[in-house]
Here is the input.
Amino acid sequence: MFSIPEQVTQAGKAVFETQLSGANALAQAAFDSGATLAEMNLNAFRDTLSALTEATAGWLAVRDGQQLASLGAERSQQLVERLQQQLRDYASAAAALAQESRARFVRIAETEGAASRDKVIDLLQAVKSAPTAAAAPLNTFLKTAFAGAQEGYDRFAQAGNAAARTVDAGINRARQTVSEADAVVTE
Here is the structure.
């Protein structure tokens, strides 16, 4: 059987490890969302480059003025429509990614917060089993441990909220950029 100080130490260590695990989970979720967004940007760039390459090839194949006039109107309209559709697709995909990321951040924060709370309860149970003579030094230890646990939980909650705000800001910037680009393309 473990001694009371060992039990309290192990319970405190479990609280810390749980909080560290939560921070790692949030960081991994943020990295995954960033990687997905980077992939979306790369695909959008490739699609745009492909459309522009096709348009350029058509322009370079022009032999006379009449062919230039007919191709100009046709290709320009096709290019504008294609770019507008790509912008709409990108905006909806970015919004879906942001919603998915926000839900993932909230889910992680809730799950890890509950796990941390359970570890704190385990720590309390270890303290309750301590004899009265050990109460004074244990009380000091617990004040420090609980202050650290509360601070860790607060920081974890702040990180989750900051991640959610960042995702929301990204959605708003993407929507604004797409609407500005759509307005420029339609002019």
About this structure: The chain has one domain: 4-186. The longest helix spans residues 65-128. The chain is about 95% helix and 0% strand. Residues 4-186 form one domain.
